[in-house]
Amino acid sequence: MAITTERRLARQSKRPGRLPEKPRKSRQKSQYPMWFYIPAAVLFFTLFVVPTIASFYFSLTRWSLFDIEFIGFDNFAQFFREPMLIQGFVNTFIFGFITSGLKVVFGLLLAVLLSSQIMGRTFLRSVVFFPVLVSVVGVGITFRVLMDPFDGLINTALAGIGVDGPGWLTDPSYALLSVAFVEVWRGVGLATLIFIAGIVAIPDEYFEAATTDGASPFQNFWHITLPLVRPAMVTVVILSLIGGLRSFDLIWAMTRGGPGFTSDVIASVIFKQYQAGFYGLSSAGNVVLFVVVTAIIVPIFWFLNRKEADQ
Amino acid sequence: MNAFKKRSKLMAALVTGAAISLTIAGCSTGGATTDGKVELSLLVDNTDANIATVEALAEAFTAQNPDIEIDVQTRPGGEEGDNLIKTRLATGEMTDLFWYNSGSLMQALNPDQTLLNIADEPFMDTVTSTFIDGVSTPNGVYAVPAGTGMGGGILYNEAIYAELGLEVPVTWDEFMDNNEAISNAGYDAVIQTYTDAWTSQLFVLGDFYNVLAEEPNWADDYTANKVNYADDDVAIRGFERLQEVYEAGYLNEDFASSTLDDGLRMLAQGEGAHYPMLSFAVSTIVELYPDQADDIGFFAQPGDGPSNGLTTWLANGIYAPADTEHPDEVKSFMAFIATVEACDVQSDAVGATGPYFIEGCVLPDDVPNATADLLPYFETEGGTAAALEFLSPVKGPSLPQITVEVGSGIRSAAEGASLYDQDVTKQAQQLGLEGW
After folding, report:
1. List of long-range contacts for A129-132, beta carbons under 8 Å, 24+ apart
2. Which end of chain B is more exposed for a tag (fewer CB within 10 A), N or C?
3. So what's the pLDDT on residue B35?
4. Who among A66, A167, A169 is closest to B90 (CB)?
């Protein structure tokens, strides 16, 4: 959303009729006195800068909370030897890309539906958005009950139509996908909201002109809505991919990475190190996670935005 | 304008004062109340039986010492609880007293720096040396025993055994034969409850008597990194047993989605025959299924030798942080726990599920059936061996997840054992042990 705002501002400044801006001096005098910034600076420094630097330092130590010993990069070596790490990475990517992809597809379809002239539009919009407002852990526990292989509502209902449902969360081959499905259900409301904002912003003239030329509704969607909704799509992809890659709470509430290690993601591997009292090691894991997420998101962000600028 | 300014200054002063006094109040946990009484805080995990035990002890103690009151607080159990204890000790926010495991978990608290040393207190004379070994370091002794010792083995349903004419097995082969018969009769032979992942460890941990029977120095060699699970034909048997019962199809069909409470229900109501478990669970059965409690018995985990014995767990301990503000009152509460009277208070409150570690304590005559099965092992010379976690500080944090995987066919016993060996290496390095 920050992206769209920036672009709007950029557009406004190009608008004719406004006073031409003065060429910026290298050191423009600020319109606020220095002390005005101090509260924000103090907060930012103590709550963000200091912990970040501290965690980089602790990642280089063996730290039991009582003793601290500097061990260089041993934690990183240990973390990459972690037997569950490879599976954790694979699961993280599966989870991140599946949830992100499905949120884009379902979010866009729902947005098209909910920005058309259907009955009870406002009500339906609220219904779609509702899961976003509910506590993640609450959602996780609810679905854990629903997905119980024997007494759960889902398998009881499936049994009613003669289908023998699997152990959604207890079968190693389904556990991660089941959680991903719940994550899509929980997060698609936000994606829909962003897409609706994007669709509503498309001027009606395009559709009117296309319809006059005999375009079908599908052609309207494919040649007008889809290209013009791209800024919204970039936002949805970035937000949901970041969320998916570092997601932890829903997985922990539903499977605790189980059965065994089969639905562990990087964040839950890190959390287990923390629980086991390997505080230095888990700091190293967080540094790795930070680097990995940055390494994935920055190129995607750059790529998607560049394409947009080209058009 | 002036008056307003003055007032706002006054307000600021008041607010600052209030904030400072709040901060100070927040720093002291527990403390002396105005009328000369002292209130001690005591942190216990949220298991019903453990809460009932400390509340009974606190009440009996305050009845004798009206000037000292005990405020019982609860915490989550498992790894979350371990973390909470470590954090509170490290930040100096620990309660005056706390309930915690003995053995390797206690060693991970860095006891020499963080806990109150009670090695030289006279009341420690009545605590048995078995328990003291489990709560001491070369530099000190840190706890008095709370609750009773436990055995790790198999809880079984005697009604099913009687119906099918089975006998209590001593060897693993006999155990598997019984499983076959039980399974053919339409019962679940072995109950497993992997949603509470820790319950999956029993076949491995409870097998330790059988390991020591064949290799008496195993624990010391393990601490020194001379032996491990994957390359030791005897030690790996625990993992293999887990795999065998799964592959033979003896488990309840909902093993992956069941909890400890489900398991105890299935056992008590006769849906399943065997449940590998720690004997403390007997008190839950007695409380929830009083009519069926007499049907539930206990035997030690069968091994490959001609005879077997019981792998035992020490009682938990009551500890105090080194920086407690009321060391004298804390010690007088500990002194009370180390008396025969305190044993009786605990027996009355929750029933006895194993032997006490205070000299002179006797069990009441009417112990639950499963507890009665447990006692002969303790009375036999060489009938028990302490679990590995009391003989070695090395215990890997991922064992529950690994045993879940082996026990549900996701990973083989050999792979599980070697994965656990890697897990243990991290813990040993963290503790700074030699040879890792």
Report:
1. A129/A189, A129/A190, A129/A192, A129/A193, A130/A189, A131/A185, A131/A186, A131/A187, A131/A188, A131/A189, A132/A186, A132/A187, A132/A189, A132/A190
2. N
3. 65
4. A66
Same domain, B229 and B347: no
* B178 and B45 belong to one structural domain: no
| B183, B300: one domain | yes
Cα–Cα dist A235/A304, whole Å:
10
Residue with tokens 């601290």, as numbered in its chain? A68
Burial class (CB in 10 A: 0-12, 13-18, 19+), B321: buried
Question: How many whole angstroms separate alpha carbon A22 and alpha carbon A26?
Answer: 12
What tens digit of pLDDT does each residue of B264-274 get?
Answer: 999 999 999 99
> How close A83 comes to chain B (CA, Å)?
7
Query: For residue A154, which amino acid is it?
Result: I
Across chain A, which has 311 residues, the per-10-residue mean pLDDT values are 44 45 56 85 91 90 82 86 83 92 94 88 91 92 91 90 88 92 94 94 91 89 91 90 87 88 89 86 89 85 72 53
Range of weakest confidence among A11-20, A140-149, B364-373, B425-434: A11-20
B90–A contact, CB cutoff 8 A: yes
B238-253 residue pLDDT tens: 999 999 999 999 999 9
A277 and B256 within 8 Å at the Cβ level: the answer is no
Residue B44 to chain A, least CA–CA distance (Å):
19
- How close is the nearest chain A Cα to the Cα of B104, in Å? 13
Overall residue count recorded for chain A in this entry: 311
Tell me if chain B has a CB within 8 Å of the CB of A77: no
**Whether the Cβ atoms of residue B237 and residue B331 lie closer than 8 Å to each other:** no
Classify each residue of B353-367 as buried b or exposed e, where b means 16 or more C-beta atoms within 10 Å of its C-beta. bbbbbbeebebeeeb
Domain boundary among B364, B384, B401: B364
The answer to whether A259 contacts B405, with C-beta atoms less than 8 Å apart, is yes
**Digit-coded pLDDT (tens) for B319-334:** 999 999 999 999 999 9
The whole-number pLDDT of residue B24 equals: 43
Residue B10 belongs to some domain of the structure: no
Look at A278 and B426 and tell me if their CB atoms are within 8 Å.
yes
